[in-house]
Protein 1
Amino acid sequence: MPKTTKKESIASKLAKKSPMKTAAVIPGTEGHQPVSAFENAMIQFDEAAKVLKLSSSQIAVIKQPRRITEVQLPVRMDDGSIETFTAYRVQHNIARGPAKGGVRFHQNVSLDEVKALAFWMTYKCAVADIPMGGGKGGVIVDPSRLSVSELERLSRRYFAELVDLFGPDRDVPAPDVNTTSQIMAWFMDTYSMHHRNHVPGVVTGKPLELGGSAGRVMATSRGLLFATRRAVARKSEKLPGMTVAVQGFGNVGSYSATLLQDDGCKVVAISDVNGAFHNPNGIDAHKALAYSTKNRGLKGFDLTGMAKKMKNALDILELDVDILCPCALELQITGKNAQKVKARYICEGANGPLDHTADKILDKKGSFIIPDILCNSGGVIVSYLEWVQNNMGYYWTEERVNSDLERFMNKAFDAVYDTMKVHKCSMRVAAFAVSIQRVSQASELRGLYA
Ligand code: GLU
């Protein structure tokens, strides 16, 4: 029998440091302190490792990122000057296949964040049971202040600088926050020019004209819809008539809103960097999407009369709705505001939107949380299907892709749900238990090379 690790978890260390030890605190949330995304990810790992009774040797091989690369990218700006941008690629684990995960362009990117995101990718691919490991990249940049040609030079320089890390059998990037199919096309072209070969399988999320997959653009949201349908059915409830709030109106949030609406839900609030917009009678998500595409965001959406602007954008998280979809960034619901969250279903379109204290509080309140590594795995599932199609050079219809996606999502959901029942734990712990078990087994079967 493997021994449980004796290492103290970050959660318990933080709890000891904290002066808050009163009885009013929800059990398990004592000593809440803000944690970083990576610290939070490590706490999530520790909780599932405890359930699995993993040995310290097993943990040593699969918990931490295996390769971290940081580079400075010099880029010629349109005015002739040169600016440098800090960029990362983290390969967390490749036991089950090539590293897989997006590249994020955002002013708040940090190494801590990219490590957390790479970690989640390892376990996301494993919970979805696709043969890929986990990786993530990021560039510290606000892309909205770059011209299209500056953005192209930055994207190409990122890929060229890290070209040895990437490859269809090594590490396969994809879109993430602020990176588009056009950027994937530049990545693919840069790699193909270096290799003097046409290599579409080196990135996913490409335009259809360049070997992208039908269904990829809406895949994350469609996966979220499938998972939500499954959750609601398990609780013997029905989606039609349920109210929805969506935080984040980028690729994932906007299509989640339209798909849930098409399934009969009423979207009552949406938000993006320009603020949160609320209408208890319902917002037409398709019209909101058209508005946001045309205006490059929801700025001024209240002036259309379709919704009122909320005073505080974060209040969207506290609305009395059936379904809350956090589809923006990490650590949006924490020990600070979780108590005020009223949604019965929390469908995590974003990666890491809840911290471990929020998890405890919301579990206690009875919210059903579909954790990120399960809920938003539709994107990487269809990325995998894109990679398969690239490797074969034969392309499927959107119906075929969507039905495969549904099969993968349902299978993953059921595995997590059943594990939750067996271990009497949360959906998050169950999702990590299922996926950590798979990564650990793959790793043990491979053994150590030297
Ligand atoms: N960036 C997406 C995610 O966080 C997609 C990753 C991929 O398709 O490789 O899951």
Protein 2
Amino acid sequence: MKNIVILISGGGSNMAAIAKTAQKEAWQEKRGLRIAAVISNQADAQGLVLAKSLGLATDLVSHRGFDSREAFDAALAARIDLHAPQLVVLAGFMRILTPGFVKHYAGRLINIHPSLLPAFAGLHTHQRAIDAGCQVAGATVHQVTAELDHGAILAQAVVPVLPGDTADALAARVLTQEHLIFPQAISSFLERSA
Ligand code: GAR
């Protein structure tokens, strides 16, 4: 069995989209791929409730109370490695990762970012796209490297920016596309690295 561990911080809608696709496409039965755990750094993440309702194992590694990023990342990695993952998926995991963590998971760590990278790395991507007068926006699935929101691009989706768009309206439009491209990018990535 090849294990996938999904890291979340918030609503977990991408995590749920991945889980539902895995179920629908019978990843476990046909390909020996299973979502071994969903881990949050936020105790009150709605995504933890959602994951449980989908029958997934959940875990919490709060970043609070650690002296350094390195100490938190080491504790998180220890918990992830209980599952010996083939792939670690960042699905709305809102933490900057240390180089040591990224190196530990080199080649098996992927992220979704709500912009058309390399444009708008970092936060507030939708407002920045609107402010820049972009006519299109979107999302990018990419491999994670030590540099924030860089790394080989695995998939992208494009949506229009509409007149009068707010950041929330644009985010919602982008999110529906994230739910389509992320599961498929994971599937293809694991197919290639099988
Ligand atoms: C998604 O839009 C994802 O692209 C973004 O957070 C949201 C999580 O939603 N990720 C980042 O901004 C990473 N820097 P979800 O919890 O409902 O999947």
